Amino acid sequence: MVGLYVDGGYLSKIAGSNLDLEDLDRVEALRGPQGTLYGRNTIAGAVNFITKKPTEERSITLATEAGNFDTFNARLTFNTPLVGKNGVFQSDALGTISLRETVGYKSHDGYYRNALSAGMPAQPATSGGRDFNSLHRLYTMTSLRWEPTKDITVDYWLEYHRFRDSSMASQLTYAYPAVFGSSLDPYILKNRSDAVPSTSIFNRDLALHQLGDSGRHIMHNLTAAWDLGDLGPLGKVTVKSISSYRSFLVDTDNDFDGTPVHVVDIMQVSDVQHWSEELQWIGTAPRFHYVLGAYYFGEYDMQNQDEVFFGGAANFPSKNFIKTKSYAPYGQITWTPPILSDKLSVTAGIRYTQEQVHLDHIWLNAANPFTASTGKAFGGIKGAGAPGLSPMVDLSYQWTDELMTYARVSRGFRGGGFTPTAP
After folding, report:
1. Contact (Cβ atoms closer than 8 angstroms) between residue 76 and residue 102
2. CB atoms within 10 A of CB 37
3. CA–CA separation, 80 vs 57, rounded Å?
4. DSSP per position, 22-76
5. How far is the CA of 278 from the CAs of 157, 241, 242, 328, 334, in angstroms?
6. Phi/psi zone of residue 8: left (φ > 0), alpha (ψ -120 to 50 degrees), beta?
């Protein structure tokens, strides 16, 4: 499991990592486990996307792309100082404030046609809407940097992303004769095809809904750093706060059997909010560099799913409400001994994680798949997960400015959870 971050803010869901980060300064990829500094769910490593920060220079960039499948991409980025000697408002009372804004749009037609292939029965006809895997996305990224003094920096970043795509294509390659007989044989495509027949899907009310994949993402990130200067035996110290809030709504309607017959129809709506706060005390002393921190993460996840099989003969609609809380203090120190021309470094760290997960799992139509009654099959399940210690010891040698070798022993922490949407 690899943890994804934007400017140090954690992205907790795969669906929530559907980003258009077009204005990046760099990407930091770290081999796992990264349990000491990055914490939960970084057993295989961590990837941190660092966005470009505003400067006191004026610039504007316009980029466009065009391609097959009617592909069209456009992006506008501009940077301008707002307050300061070079700003729109020339005043030193508030220090300097700069803005960097990116607006973009992406689109292309579907990669697979939603159509019957040669030899397939004319009925039932396909009626699932647009071709598969099309793309229509609009996104914006807003960055503000405020420097009230030379020792304090405050960065705010906002990302908004809206998409109206078509669903993925599912191709039928085999059907078990004992279950389906020969009814699906005309729709079997053993080789990859550019045309896949599909249909609208059934929800629990047995009404038809068009295929689709749509949603929106919003992320706020606020990072503040204060250079306290030299504090004697504590070294040069910087205190830092990383605050993050993200919400996203994803609505998917998929026909998973890849035929115009209603065999497997699944709809899912996920409405998720998660937030985090991290405080760091970063110190640099002669031959020592250390970090002390405290981290909090919270999440609320609502999932509404319909799973309709065989045209409604089996129906598994459900609602799920999941709450997660995670707390973690941590510390890490690096020592450079006075040997080997200061090329050798020894690092040790430890993190303590306490996490709680609560699930309310509600089956709709629990007694009879064709009634509108509701039932709570499971409710109030708590997973208080065992506290996790994530130690790390690292020995590294810097041969040149571009070559380093290291040996590391570390342990990660994987947060607990549920899979309530399984029927």
Report:
1. yes
2. 19
3. 6
4. -SEEEEEEEES--TTTT-TT-SSEEEEEEEPPP-SS-EEEEEEEEETTTEEEEEE
5. 16, 6, 5, 9, 21
6. left
Q: Are 146 and 96 in contact (CB under 8 A)?
A: yes
Give the max Cα distance, the chain: 83
Cα 136 to Cα 24, 159, 168: the distances in Å are 22, 17, 14
Report pTM: 0.88
How many angstroms separate the Cα of 313 from the Cα of each of 23, 316, 326, 375, 421? Answer: 49, 10, 41, 19, 18
DSSP-H helix ranges across 84-136: none
The percent helix, strand, coil of the chain (3-state, each to 5) is 5, 60, 35
Q: Is 211's pLDDT higher than 90?
A: no
Rounded to whole angstroms, the Cα distance separating 301 from 94 reads 40
Pick from 274, 180, 279: nearest CA to 226:
279
- Cα 328 from Cα 277, distance rounded (Å): 11
Beta strands in 68-134 (DSSP E): 71-83, 96-108
State the pLDDT confidence band at 35, using cuts at 50, 70 and 90.
confident
Report the alpha-carbon distance of residue 173 to residue 181 in Å, rounded.
Answer: 15
Q: State the number of CA atoms in the 13 A half-sphere of 51 facing the CB.
A: 31
Is residue 365 over pLDDT 80? no
pLDDT tens per residue across span 373-392: 344 444 445 554 557 889 99
Is 160:217 a contact under the CB 8 Å cutoff? yes
Q: Give the number of other Cβ atoms within 10 Å of residue 237's Cβ.
A: 18
The residue behind tokens 């040997």 is: 339
